[in-house]
Design brief:
globular, 4 helices, single chain, mainly beta, 251 residues
Length: 251
């Protein structure tokens, strides 16, 4: 069994290098119009192209077919992965959880009072699924999408697809963008087993209900997230995460 890296959320944040390379909209000249419109809206000119973001959030998470309030904090570092830690409550008791993918190893763990396990998952399938989460969460760290190695395809008047590799896995990230360049939806094929059977690729992503600007980055700050995005199953069984981002810092 692969050993889970002993690294905390603070460790991951502090390991990310601070960037001094400014965002220049002229660097986007060869991108499709929709990709350029999105990135120009998401990143203010001369904003340092960050390697990581740290987020504070609250919302609701669906566990055992019931919605529970949560508070959470997350670090996404594009070159190494992410760590998300949160607290929710069930029957008056706090449940502390952590999802992570760091240096190629993924894990999910939840404990009542931080002591008694209620859910733990690891292994190759969890790692691949966690990579998919990082890929779709590039909408919260849009500097990742300025990488010149990314190839862009404009699918229609409102959708553009970014094709790239992140943490060793290929991604096709489809962004739905408004006329003003605001992100409305992000979707990928993510490895998972939402039906509880064998892992396979499933449409996954988030619907953006509100956006805000932090440190020169305009990102989604109210989201509905889940499986089967784009179908009726999203509303009935796929949606499991509703979050509002309260604060974000970049480096």
């Amino acid at each position: 069994m692969t050993k889970i890296p002993e690294i905390s959320l603070d460790d991951l944040w502090e390991s990310a290098p601070k960037s001094d390379r400014p965002f220049n909209p002229e660097s986007l000249i060869n991108l499709p119009n929709l990709a350029r419109r999105y990135l120009e809206n998401a990143i203010a000119p001369n904003t340092p192209l960050a390697s990581a973001v740290r987020l504070w959030m609250h919302g609701e998470i669906k566990l055992d077919q019931k919605w529970h309030p949560f508070k959470g904090e997350e670090v996404i570092y594009g070159d190494r992965g992410m760590i998300w830690r949160a607290t929710t409550w069930a029957k008056g008791l706090p449940i502390w959880g952590c999802d992570r993918i760091v240096d190629g190893v993924g894990e999910s763990q939840w404990k009542i009072l931080g002591l008694f396990p209620v859910m733990q998952a690891s292994g190759a399938d969890i790692t691949r699924s966690s990579v998919g989460r990082v890929q779709v969460e590039s909408m919260l760290l849009p500097s990742i999408l300025c990488n010149p190695d990314i190839s862009w395809t404009e699918l229609n008047a409102s959708q553009v697809q970014a094709n790239f590799t992140a943490l060793g896995e290929p991604a096709k990230l489809t962004l739905t963008v408004s006329d003003r360049g605001m992100l409305e939806q992000a979707k990928i094929d993510r490895w998972g087993n939402p039906e509880g059977e064998a892992f396979h690729y499933v449409d996954f992503g988030g619907i953006v209900e509100e956006s805000s600007t932090f440190d020169g980055y305009t990102i989604p700050t109210r989201l509905r997230v889940g499986w089967f995005l784009g179908s009726d199953r999203f509303e009935s069984e796929g949606e499991f995460f509703r979050c509002s981002i309260d604060r974000a810092i970049y480096q």
